[in-house]
Automatic annotation (TrEMBL):
<keyword id="KW-0472">Membrane</keyword>
<dbReference type="InterPro" id="IPR022791">
    <property type="entry name" value="L-PG_synthase/AglD"/>
</dbReference>
<feature type="transmembrane region" description="Helical">
    <location>
        <begin position="107"/>
        <end position="128"/>
    </location>
</feature>
<keyword id="KW-0812">Transmembrane</keyword>
<feature type="transmembrane region" description="Helical">
    <location>
        <begin position="200"/>
        <end position="222"/>
    </location>
</feature>
<dbReference type="GO" id="GO:0005886">
    <property type="term" value="C:plasma membrane"/>
</dbReference>
<keyword id="KW-1133">Transmembrane helix</keyword>
<feature type="transmembrane region" description="Helical">
    <location>
        <begin position="134"/>
        <end position="155"/>
    </location>
</feature>
<keyword id="KW-1003">Cell membrane</keyword>
<protein>
    <recommendedName>
        <fullName>TIGR00374 family protein</fullName>
    </recommendedName>
</protein>
<feature type="transmembrane region" description="Helical">
    <location>
        <begin position="262"/>
        <end position="282"/>
    </location>
</feature>
<dbReference type="Pfam" id="PF03706">
    <property type="entry name" value="LPG_synthase_TM"/>
</dbReference>
<feature type="transmembrane region" description="Helical">
    <location>
        <begin position="28"/>
        <end position="48"/>
    </location>
</feature>
Amino acid sequence: MGTALALFLSSGVSDVTAAVVSAGWGTLAVVLARFAAVAWAGLGWYAVFPRGAGPTLRDCISLRFVREGINTLLPVAQVGGDLIGARLLTRSGTPGGMAGASMFVDLMTQAVTQLVFTIAGLLLLMQITGDGPMVRTVAGGVLIAIPALAAFYVIQRRSGHRLIEAALSRFAAGREWRALGAIDVLFENLRRLYGNRARVGAALLIHLLGWVAGTVEVWIALNAMGYSISFLDALVIESLAQAVRGAAFVVPGAIGAQEGGLIALGALFGIPVEAALALSLVKRVADLAVGLPSLALWNLMERKGAAPAETDGTETVREGLGAIRARLGRRSGATPLAPAYGFSAARNPAPLSSDNEAGALQKCA
């Protein structure tokens, strides 16, 4: 936050403000483009599910907005929203193992396509500027990202299954975990999803097109400010700026990192600092315009899901109490109660109904 503030102050707040104002209609167009991009990413998530065994397209798109809002506006290292999205997906009838596996596959397809997008931007940058510090820095980042991405994939396959089972057996009461079948079910669904190569390929294509379409934000905003750049130039800026944003995932909203990256990249194409910062602000406006309604949607989903969960809990309490009462009745039926502390046991105790039992527990809770 301090870095971003220092950049704005050093560049002149009035100059940056004037550049933002000059964007005019471009800001609205960028916001609309962001809404379309998030919905398109929801289609990419939907594509990984087997036909007839997953949620509706509407559920995937709405939950993709929730994921986007949480990851963009909350300090969750850009992954907390994905976990919450998978949990909410189970409320639409998707089994937990399938929901969790789909989240991992969706993250994998997004990461792979972003790497391809970054490499494409790097190659274009090399053609435009030749070798230089920027090219070498991005190339070094790509070399680090490739093995990290490969490790993420391996963890989701059979080797990762064995590794997690061994860790649970050693440190976390693995027998209980295996009895519940949580890990086995998750990896079985991962094998099922990755085994459908046509659907994984479709998801990869959808996400790759989504990254390329995101270039429209940069192209519209800069041209609206009066800086005529080509779509390929905008693609270089967008691809490498997204790589910088991804590398700064631990910083909420990549504040400071996005601004610095856009200044450095804009300088390669003759874009002044104030215009680069104005571009960052336009992108921040899109973050808020999409993120705030998405957080409100998340709150609504949580509130709607609370009532059914409470009802299910009451039914579970009743069933459990009924089972306990039946077992106690079988054990004590042949043996009369003995006197205790000088008082005789009641011969015909009044029964307590299951409704009263559940109600009493609810009051205690």
